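Retro notes, item 3 of 5
We never archived the inputs for the magnesium ion complex last cycle. Fixing that now. Sequence and ligand:
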Amino acid sequence: MTDSHLRTLEAETESRTAAIAAAIAGLAGPGDVIALAGDLGSGKSVFARSFIYALGGSGDVPSPTFTLVQMYELTPSNVFHFDLYRLEKPEDAIELDIDDAFHEGISLIEWPARLGAYLPPRRLLITFEFGTNEDARLLHLDAPDAWAGRIQGLEAHV
Ligand SMILES: Nc1ncnc2c1ncn2[C@@H]1O[C@H](COP(=O)(O)OP(=O)(O)OP(=O)(O)O)[C@@H](O)[C@H]1O
Ligand SMILES: [Mg+2]
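Structure as it came back at the time:
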């Protein structure tokens, strides 16, 4: 049984979300799976883009709405950005090479619930919630043991 460790970070502005994403990117390594949940427009893609930039990505980071996954060759590993909004059933994800992504890359997954049982339990789940004003968001982190130590003190780094 994996314990989960919960905490909430406040992102009063978009640049705070970007800073949190950059801080988490600095803690991530090959094989990490980061699930980005939350309603339309809650900030999942802002997070993913900032995460990819923090690892040296440059240029456009389009949401892979139709291709469902976009890969970036980065260090310390390739980053696979999934947007599974249009995934019709979990089995369809197998064709997206999720095995390679989950084992060798860093995976950022928007609409992770679409994966059903294919979402690994060891994922770091970040749920985005709208805050009290237009630019504010709450990022609820649900961390498995493998992430618990890493996200301790995260606030001090953003
Ligand atoms: N604190 C904040 N953090 C993130 N985004 C913010 C924040 N405040 C305002 N925004 C705005 O909210 C929007 C977030 O859009 P984004 O595309 O990241 O959402 P999403 O969760 O990926 O939606 P979708 O489910 O459609 O993919 C952007 O227009 C961004 O400018
Ligand atoms: Mg998005």
